[in-house]
Design a protein that fits this description.
Oligomer: heterodimer
CATH superfamily of the largest domain in chain A: Reverse transcriptase/Diguanylate cyclase domain
Number of domains of chain B: 1
Number of strands of chain A: 7
Distance between the termini of chain A: 65 Å
CATH superfamily of chain B: P-loop containing nucleotide triphosphate hydrolases
Structural class of chain B: alpha/beta
Strand order of the largest sheet of chain B: 3-4-2-5-1-6-7-8
CATH class of the largest domain in chain A: Alpha Beta
CATH architecture of chain B: 3-Layer(aba) Sandwich
Bound molecules: adenosine-5'-triphosphate, magnesium ion
Number of domains of chain A: 2
Radius of gyration of chain A: 23 Å
Strand content of chain B: 15-25%
CATH topology of chain B: Rossmann fold
Radius of gyration of chain B: 17 Å
Helix content of chain A: 40-55%
CATH class of chain B: Alpha Beta
Largest interface: A-B, 22 and 24 residues
Distance between the termini of chain B: 16 Å
Chain lengths: ~230, ~270
């Protein structure tokens, strides 16, 4: 299992907290406990991803940063399709594994500067600072494909397949929005992905031509041909 | 993978520039692969201006479009072509299919998945250009074969296609075929030249470098035109013509396991 030790059992790894013997702790030890508690309060116990509270702080910061830096960011909302059915059919342990699978795929596909969060239930989010529209679609598609290609193996040999719907909005300096509006726009795209049949990505900005060919490239490409062909 | 567990090698044929010989290569390569004992189906993925049926002198009663709309079963559409391969024809002039919708995406994916259980090779003949439809069809194929001619406009378009496939589909290997090339050396030189520009401007932007594989060349051959005017397949009608021989070599290069270039999109 992907479960990251510590988050689910966070309080148990700190016997001082449980036994109430905090008075006997050194300053450093107290600081470590405070850090640990902060950490626990900002992470999701099951997946180890950051939780909604952290996500909202991070999104607020990113919206501000976009206007200062001028760099476009992307917000993706990722929803596990038919999560309730998986839970009802196979039990909540398999449901948990499904969530861990999505969390694993997200972790594998984000850069250190990105934020992957579990926003409760079967909803996840990723904030991608400085993300060009064409790259954003690529990452979203990759996440969708990898979840689809990572079924859960049951003990009886059967596989449970999962899919995700992904909605995304670009946070661009040209439209000043507060973070609730950004979240709302991403939510609308997620709704679109769901209503168009699930297992798909819907982003709000059409990706521009992904790979413009510069004059430099063309001249390097063609110059030698012109010379050679007359030989 | 499909329910039968078998899976065809899926090869998309594309070029950027139109009229460079994609359909010619698709049909004749298919016949050459059949001669090597393979079961081959060519799917006309030029959904806007399909004409594989014309080239092969077929008279389809139903087309891919009937499968896309669910009006026909796939087995009722597939036709036998001269040369021993099978064809999934498409209708022409349906402007709504020159645009890619998510329904068309899903249906195409389903059809190709179903077909891949029944053949050794699925060859996808795409239309000209780099529309989202062409790129989507390419994304369904594990291998891509880019057809170019030595003409500058064709080289430039082949390069743009390579760049997009590398950046958007994370291809690590792409096959090149030079049509209307004087000889193999010319084709190789053009491939090397393309590789140099790719190394400098594309491979610096990708996680894994794209490698171009020179799969072969086909000479310009008057036999091609005369077979086309009779609506016959060159590989059947003039098997000893220079172009037919070149196509046979191309089939060998593709079919020989050592030279295979697998370039799955991630
Ligand atoms: N090696 C060759 N020698 C002579 N003529 C050729 C050769 N290859 C192709 N042609 C001719 O070039 C024309 C265009 O070929 P074809 O239709 O296969 O191109 P295409 O790339 O499929 O075009 P489109 O982009 O319109 O689909 C045809 O008339 C064909 O007969
Ligand atoms: Mg054609």
């Amino acid at each position: 299992m992907l479960r990251q030790a510590g988050y689910a059992d966070g309080l148990q790894v700190m016997p001082e907290v449980q036994s109430g013997s905090l008075q006997s702790c050194s300053c450093e030890a107290l600081q470590a406990i405070i850090d640990r508690l902060c950490d626990i309060s900002l992470h999701d116990a099951l997946t180890g991803l950051v939780n909604t509270r952290y996500f909202k702080l991070a999104l607020g910061r990113e919206v501000d940063r976009v206007f200062r830096s001028g760099e476009i960011a992307l917000l993706l909302l990722i929803d596990l399709d038919s999560f309730k059915e998986i839970n009802d059919t196979y039990g909540h342990l398999v449901g948990d594994q499904a969530l861990l699978t999505v969390a694993g795929v997200l972790t594998k596909n984000v850069r250190p500067m990105d934020t992957a969060a579990r926003c409760g239930g079967d909803e996840f989010a990723v904030i991608l600072p400085n993300c060009r529209p064409d790259t954003g679609r690529l990452i979203a598609e990759r996440i969708r494909m990898q979840v689809e290609q990572t079924p859960i193996a049951l003990t009886d040999g059967r596989n449970v397949r999962m899919t995700t719907s992904i909605g995304g909005t670009h946070i661009s300096p040209s439209r000043k929005l507060v973070f609730e509006e950004v979240l709302d726009q991403a939510d609308q795209q997620l709704y679109r992905a769901k209503s168009e049949g699930r297992n798909r990505v819907s982003l709000d900005v059409q990706a521009p031509v992904a790979a413009p060919v510069s004059f430099d490239e063309k001249s390097q490409l063609l110059d030698p041909f012109g010379r050679d062909s007359d030989e | 993978m499909n329910s039968s567990g078998l899976s065809a090698r899926i090869v998309a044929i594309t070029s950027g520039k139109g009229g460079v010989g994609k359909t010619f290569v698709a049909a004749n390569l298919a016949a050459a692969l059949v001669k090597r004992g393979r079961r081959v189906l060519v799917l006309d993925a030029d959904l806007g201006l399909a004409n594989l049926d014309i080239v092969l002198n077929l008279n389809p009663k139903a087309t891919l479009h009937d499968a896309l709309t669910g009006q026909c079963a796939i087995k009722d559409i597939v036709l036998a072509a001269p040369g021993g391969f099978w064809v999934m024809p498409a209708a022409s002039g349906l402007i709504e299919y020159s645009r890619l919708t998510s329904d068309v995406q899903g249906e195409l994916r389903r059809i190709i998945d179903e077909l891949s259980g029944q053949y050794d090779y699925l060859i996808l003949d795409t239309g000209a250009g780099i529309s989202d439809l062409v790129l989507f069809v390419a994304s369904l194929a594990k291998e891509v074969l880019i057809v170019a001619t030595p003409e500058p406009a064709s080289i430039a378009d082949a390069y743009a296609t390579i760049k997009i496939l590398a950046l958007m589909q994370q291809r690590t290997s792409l096959n090149l075929v030079f049509n209307q090339a004087r000889n193999a050396a010319d084709g190789r030189k053009l491939t090397e030249q393309l590789q140099q520009v790719v190394d400098r401007f594309v491979n610096t932007q990708t996680a894994t470098a794209v490698r171009l594989v020179h799969l072969g060349h086909i000479p310009g051959d008057p036999a091609v035109g005369s077979a086309a005017r009779k609506r016959q397949l060159l590989f059947v009608q003039a098997p000893d013509s220079p172009a037919s021989k070149a196509v046979a070599e191309l089939a060998e290069a593709l079919d020989a396991p050592a030279k295979v270039s697998h370039c799955a999109p991630q």
